Amino acid sequence: MPEAETEAAPRTPDAPAAALQVKGLSKSYGSNTVVCEVTLDVQRGETLCLIGPSGSGKSTLLKCLNLLETPDCGEIWLGETCLTAPHADVDAARSRIGMVFQHFNLFPHMSVERNVTLGLTSVKGMGREQAREIARLRLKEVGLGAFADQRPGRLSGGQQQRVAIARALAMEPEVMLFDEATSALDPELVKDVLAVMRDLASGGMTMAVVTHEMGFAREAADRVAFMCDGRLAEIGTPDRIFESAEHPRLRQFLSQIL
Ligand code: ADP
Ligand code: MG
Would you tell me which of 3, 52, 62, 182 could form a disulfide with 56, CB atoms 3.0–4.6 Å apart? Predict the structure, then answer.
């Protein structure tokens, strides 16, 4: 029977598709190459922590991942979508990636709830009532169900950061990126934000987390990647990275902060 021969090759069943793949990514500012040929992947449900000295290119790498910065070369794949393809739909891609920054940038004149619904109504075109329901649910998840009607200015920095996380989650992203989400917070406010991030990680969210919180990296990360001078210098399980680091710069980095 000739039909069998003309059929398309079957897809590999349940291929372990990475949620996010970065291949040979580089980014320079002028003559300064700040991200240099980085190749890495984040598997579905995985939490990858990115650590490294200040200026090593962690933030730039993260910004490239959701195209806030344009890479000079290399590829970024979100599932089966190539974000760096010439005609990639950047807005569509971005809406699949949630990002939480050090500075949460909530709109001060809007209620906490409206801050969370804004992306749903304006970007996704969702009706106000449905958006409110989602916002209430997400705010509850980050422990702020009772604060929906408040202005962000009435909340602590840690609470505001949790609103920012709820805002990102409301969009149902496939991947969450965190860039030093706790670095601007007073020490006593850090733990509640980390607890939310831990819950997300153990709940199966796919996450790439730039952090200086080594306790978090040790406990919540599936793998830890060390960046140094724009390069991915070492990557491995938390045990490997923290107990038997190979790269001299990683050993030095850890000896300074642990
Ligand atoms: P990290 O997040 O690891 O501290 P960054 O990615 O912020 O590192 O920065 C890496 C390097 O790139 C630094 O030397 C920084 O000064 C430089 N850099 C970052 N953003 C810009 C920019 N917009 N223009 C020029 N240089 C930049
Ligand atoms: Mg940074």
Answer: 52
